[in-house]
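ARCHIVE CARD
CATEGORY: sequence design from structure
SOURCE FIELD: tokenized fold
FIELD CONTENT:
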């Protein structure tokens, strides 16, 4: 069974496969993964043939099922990934749980994400462990200095839940 780190790494590999597939179909595909994630699906997959080709090639390279319905529901490629696979926030939450100290690392995710982030990750060493794992698991440039600063503030705040900290990381 894949670890939380492997699941997060795989999520980004699948997004990269989508970018490569879209790039073969449209010259307007962003070369950068973050920019691609923000691109509108409708701007790159403009014909029925492009959509059908994309659906088949993504299924072949990732095993993800992408259909006309999922393409229609997604505004951006990030949306599409979050529809076709468990969401980025789900995988980021799994990493948070995996690196959390006892007793939090055994909590059900529904309970864990309601915890106050500063209570769970109460030391600089614990927040560094989270950040180190995320930096290892995510492509370069995704966890920017600004995102890390916002995450540090969430970990220091008595008001931010784990879910709010996760959403800082999962937002682009």
């Amino acid at each position: 069974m894949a670890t939380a780190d492997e699941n997060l790494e795989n999520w980004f590999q699948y997004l990269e496969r989508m970018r490569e597939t879209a790039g073969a179909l449209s010259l307007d595909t962003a070369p950068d993964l973050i920019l691609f994630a923000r691109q509108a699906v409708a701007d790159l997959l403009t014909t029925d043939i492009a959509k059908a080709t994309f659906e088949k090639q993504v299924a072949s390279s990732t095993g993800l099922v992408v259909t006309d319905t999922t393409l229609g529901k997604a505004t951006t490629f990030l949306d599409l990934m979050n529809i076709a696979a468990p969401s980025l926030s789900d995988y980021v939450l799994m990493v948070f749980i995996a690196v959390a100290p006892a007793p939090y690392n055994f909590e059900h995710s529904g309970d864990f994400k309601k915890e106050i982030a500063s209570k769970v990750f109460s030391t600089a060493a614990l927040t560094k462990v989270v950040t180190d794992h995320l930096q290892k698991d995510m492509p370069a440039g995704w966890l920017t200095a600004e995102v890390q600063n916002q995450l540090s503030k969430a970990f220091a705040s008595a008001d931010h839940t784990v879910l709010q900290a996760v959403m800082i990381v999962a937002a682009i």
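CARD ANNOTATION: The chain has a mean pLDDT of 94. The two ends are 28 Å apart (CA to CA).
SHELF: design records, drawer C
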